[in-house]
Amino acid sequence: MNSTSSDSTAVNVPALRRKVAWRILPLVIVLYIIAYLDRANVAFAKLRMKDALGFSDEVFGFGIGVFFIGYLILEIPGALLVERWSARKWFARILITWGFISAGMAFVKTPEQFYWMRFLLGVAEAGFFPGIIVYFSHWFVQRERSRALSWLLIAVPFSLAFGAPVSSLLLDVKWLALDGWQWLFIVEGLPAVLLGFIVLVCFTDRPRDAKWLTQAERDHLEGELAAEAAAKETTGKISVWQALRLPMVWLLVVAVMIGNSGGYALTFWLPTTVKNLSGGSDQMTLFYSGIYYACGIVSVLVSGYTADRTGDRKWHAAGGMIATGIFLLCSTIPGQTFGTQMIWLCFTSLGAFFWISPFWTLPSLTLTASAAAVAVGLINMGANLAGYAGNHVTGWLRGNGYTEMQCLHFLAACFITGGIILTFLRIKTTPTA
Q: Which residues contact 127 (CB under 8 A, 6 or more apart)?
């Protein structure tokens, strides 16, 4: 039943949208802040962990990357479980298991233990991000989804901008015979367990289950989402298997595989890069890393707003990737001071976080719900293969005598190539204002 017209006079639509946003987004943002910090805090811990355990850059490169292999295992099933079962129960399971495993990273002693814990962390967290994208399609109509996703993705730079100074303080803690890098994993891992139980109580799967909405509001929101889904069906129903054969889907997969090879490696190796370029202390390194991620917060908000306002997602994503690579190349120009290099890295951050939220709305623009869920899972599989490949290659380069600048050239090439591939997409622009 489509009730959008019949109950529109009984529902204050702008107030309804604000109510949904305030109920859904804050908790989801907190969840993703914890998620991203727990997967990326190894970059901060590495500053002390490397010497404490005697791990080489190659060990760290493989260990950081193997997380993404674990993540692949439940990628597509996780997105489908959110679509067809329960986001509340699935996200609670994810949070509780990954929180304990992340805290357990404090007790690794050998490279093999490091690899296994990173792998299991990936398995535990698998399906969370694609599940969130599918979950948003249950609450936000298409014209609002980029902005909602940009608020979610602000958690990425925020978690790292916040995590850098917190981690800096934790690195100097020594308590109960545990070093600072160990407390870093424990203190930043266990909040996920608590949030898992909060999700079981506070999360709502779909509008029809929302007791915090009136019946008229539930009917209006369900009707609006149903009408949007029906409009997609009338343009040509696309099955799951047909979606997997679409050139658009595979262009997105290849683009994100190549672009994210640079993106994930830049995230995980940024503190090492900043320390090598600046020659400063661990605390100063994390301070500058925090500045880099703070620039990303601004970029995520701007891109989500302008992508929704103009209806353009393709060129936001492609342009952001290409600009990231160009700015990163500029940071490697010989003869620059560290201050100048840091300015270029801040511009790099603006590009690196600009393309992400518009990119992840692209699958839902033309695909039906189940097909989009599978496509998002498949595309995120590509993104996570990139996380493995980019970090493994970066660790290998560093371990085999390649310079900092040569490593940055590799990352810049990944961004530029991924952006160029995105320019071949055929996506209709639908401005909303």
A: 74, 75, 77, 78, 79, 81, 82, 90, 94, 377
Of the candidates 407, 429, 232, the residue with the CA atom closest to the CA atom of residue 318: 429
C-alpha to C-alpha distance for 214 and 208, rounded to whole angstroms:
10
* 1 within some domain: no
Residue pointed to by tokens 């891992």: 189
DSSP notation for 208-277: GG-TTS-HHHHHHHHHHHHHHHHHHHHT----HHHHTT-HHHHHHHHHHHHHHHHHHHHHHHHHHHHHHH
- This model's pTM is above 0.90: no
CATH number at residue 102: 1.20.1250.20
Domain count, the chain: 1
Query: Tens of pLDDT along 98-150?
Result: 899 999 999 999 999 999 999 999 888 877 877 887 888 888 887 777 677 77
Q: Which two tokens stand for residue 249?
A: 């889907």
Could you give the count of Cα atoms lying within 13 Å of 272 in the half-sphere of its Cβ?
A: 27
The gap from C-alpha 79 to its chain's centroid, in whole angstroms, comes to: 15
